[in-house]
Amino acid sequence: MRGSSDFDDLAAYRRFVDDIVSRVNARNSKRIDIERAELQELPARRTSDYEEVTVRITSSGGFTLRKVFYTVPSRLIGHRLRVRLFDDRLDIFIGGTHLMTLPRGRASSTGKHDQVVNYRHVIHSLRRKPMALLNLVYRDQLFPREAYRRTFDMLIKRLPERQACRTMVELLAMAHERGCESELADQLTASLQARRLPDMAALRERFAPDPARLPSVVVRLAPLNAYEALLGANLTGDVA
Fold first, then answer.
1. Which phi and psi (to 5°) does residue 87 adopt?
2. Which residues form the Transposase for insertion sequence element IS21-like C-terminal domain (predicted)?
3. Which pTM was predicted?
4. In the chain, at which residue ranges do the beta strands (DSSP E only) sit?
5. How far is the CA of 94 from the CAs of 80, 112, 115, 153, in angstroms?
6. Over the stretch 47-81, which tens digit does the pLDDT of each residue have?
7. Domain edges within the chain
8. What is the CA angle 195-185-204, rounded to 5?
């Protein structure tokens, strides 16, 4: 009907389906109106439109479901989680507590596995073993923006592998811990355009916490004689 199944995104596909359904319904509007008059009220509760499965989080910090590997925070390693599998997302639960929602991945038509990776989930493990970045199967999916991937390519070309991996992991950790993923990507893009390596010292200073925005905390210690007063009150009560 369209000539191609190549859609830009899921929203474009849904708009296409809505348009087709609307045109079909327009041709049958009279019969639909007859049926609508006979329709009953909707149920009080929505029916389950998901499949629920149980997964175990492996030492790699994730789980595989339907040929797709998903990462989760490393603190969940070893836990069994309930997953509600929807058409477009996964709702993750531990017991009855909702933990997070992940976008659903799809294995390719050739059977090749896919990965849904969030660098925030694995950055703490990578900081302990930065060289693991070199051979990660899902390394390309790990980078949150194109600037990070291109920066790693340049680091690998111009630095020893160990130093390149350490630098890249530090950049990802900075993006996560300082909440500056977009702004840091802009700085990396500027460095790429100038064909120079990232200046880590300058980036640490630029994205360091602003002392002026840090709260001033004053801790007031109770005087010791206050405890003596409390002890005296208890002793008086015992005597009475």
1. -65, -35
2. 42-104
3. 0.70
4. 51-56, 62-65, 68-71, 80-85, 89-94, 97-103, 114-116
5. 7, 29, 22, 38
6. 788 899 999 999 888 999 999 999 999 889 999 99
7. 51-116, 119-208
8. 90
